[in-house]
Write a structure and sequence with these properties.
The chain has about 180 residues and is mainly α. The protein has one domain: Arp2/3 complex 21 kDa subunit ARPC3. Helix content is about 75%, strand content about 0%. A two-stranded antiparallel ribbon has the order 1-2. The radius of gyration is 16 Å and the shape is globular. It starts with a helix and ends with a helix. The mean pLDDT is about 95.
Amino acid sequence: MKTKTIAVCAIFAAIMCVFSVITVPIGPVPVTLGFFGVMITSVILGARRGAVSVAVFILMGAVGLPVFSGFKGGFEVLLGPTGGYIWSYVPMAVLIGLVTAKDPTDKRLAVLKAFLACIGAALLGYAVGTLQFVLVQETTFTQALTVCVVPFIPFDIAKAAAAAYLGCTVKTALKKSGTA
């Protein structure tokens, strides 16, 4: 990897650290901006650099840095009830990055494409996170959906819309400036 790529990935990993610790507790699974951090990172950086940034973020948390929701860190968080959501971040980044790799020339279509990619990635995150929640909490899938997915749908739609618009705007500006 080039030095510039390493620096960009590190910056976006740091941005995800900031987004992920902001927590609104509404039950066993808090509302965070973690999905938003993954979404905007992946729209801007693409699949490879987005996945590297997300992996660096996860590794920082795994070694104990307090970068996860509520300023938590450590491998036990990744093995806990909400760890599946964090594990899903890498495949989410790859999915978003692959779908948004070639933007249409019409900005509205590019934003729509990015929005749909972010929604698909959120669904992937829900699936992986809910599965781990069911296994760790020994609960039913229906109960887990009620706790882990349904309350978050409006928030995640808003996060996807914001990440798509802001991510496409930043990516376009970076391409125009020659720094992308």
